[in-house]
């Protein structure tokens, strides 16, 4: 099997597009964030899909950035690092939601309720530094999306409409204090569409096809 730049680029494009599809899907199917909900099948399915979304997004967005690293400049670098941090934080928090909260629901419902309040900026009680996850993740999403979107738009390598949408979409999260958290999930849909567009655009690119590595085939 021969690993080529084209193959890796197309794989990154598919990962980005799949991450965008999952990002949009989980916003629509996400259960109400209550202690009773964390033990349901719907909760498990949603958060397993969210974990997959974050892992695919982390790999895909690296490919998106590297496909135009020379044109993205410092703005693109900072945007990529911040957006990658968002995916990493999402992975960590979602792991807790998927595997820890269901175990705590019966024994420590108050702690579960406080942990569920983190993304929406609600009452996190005595969680201390753990409560900082909310604003840190929000900042990484906002700064990363806006800066990376601007850099991609200026680079003129991938679909410019998707790049512009990535830059504008995260700004909608500034409506956090104005609308219920459940409705705020719909504000993530433009970013989901942007990721799908960027992924498809990256998949369609045709960079040089020189092999990077010759991987021996196991017979």
TrEMBL record:
<feature type="transmembrane region" description="Helical">
    <location>
        <begin position="49"/>
        <end position="67"/>
    </location>
</feature>
<keyword id="KW-0812">Transmembrane</keyword>
<keyword id="KW-1133">Transmembrane helix</keyword>
<keyword id="KW-0472">Membrane</keyword>
<protein>
    <recommendedName>
        <fullName>DUF4386 domain-containing protein</fullName>
    </recommendedName>
</protein>
<feature type="transmembrane region" description="Helical">
    <location>
        <begin position="129"/>
        <end position="150"/>
    </location>
</feature>
<feature type="transmembrane region" description="Helical">
    <location>
        <begin position="182"/>
        <end position="203"/>
    </location>
</feature>
<feature type="transmembrane region" description="Helical">
    <location>
        <begin position="74"/>
        <end position="96"/>
    </location>
</feature>
<feature type="transmembrane region" description="Helical">
    <location>
        <begin position="12"/>
        <end position="29"/>
    </location>
</feature>
<feature type="transmembrane region" description="Helical">
    <location>
        <begin position="157"/>
        <end position="176"/>
    </location>
</feature>
């Amino acid at each position: 099997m021969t690993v080529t730049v084209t193959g890796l680029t197309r794989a990154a494009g598919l990962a980005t597009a799949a991450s965008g599809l999952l990002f949009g899907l989980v916003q629509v199917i996400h259960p109400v964030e209550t202690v009773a909900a964390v033990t349901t099948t719907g909760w498990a399915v949603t958060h397993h899909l969210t974990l997959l979304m974050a892992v695919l997004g982390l790999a895909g967005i690296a490919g998106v950035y590297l496909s135009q690293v020379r044109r993205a400049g410092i703005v693109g670098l900072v945007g990529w690092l911040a957006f990658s941090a968002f995916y990493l934080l999402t992975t960590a928090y979602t792991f807790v939601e998927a595997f820890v909260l269901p175990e705590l629901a019966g024994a420590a419902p108050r702690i579960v309720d406080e942990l569920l309040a983190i993304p929406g900026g609600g009452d996190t009680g005595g969680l201390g530094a753990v409560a900082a996850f909310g604003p840190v993740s929000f900042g990484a999403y906002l700064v990363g999306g806006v800066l990376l979107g601007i850099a991609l738009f200026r680079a003129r390598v991938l679909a410019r409409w998707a790049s512009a949408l990535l830059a504008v979409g995260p700004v909608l999260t500034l409506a956090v204090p104005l609308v219920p958290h459940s409705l705020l999930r719909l504000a993530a849909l433009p970013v989901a569409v942007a990721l799908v567009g960027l992924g498809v655009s990256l998949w369609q690119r045709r960079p040089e096809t020189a092999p990077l590595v010759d991987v021996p085939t196991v017979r």
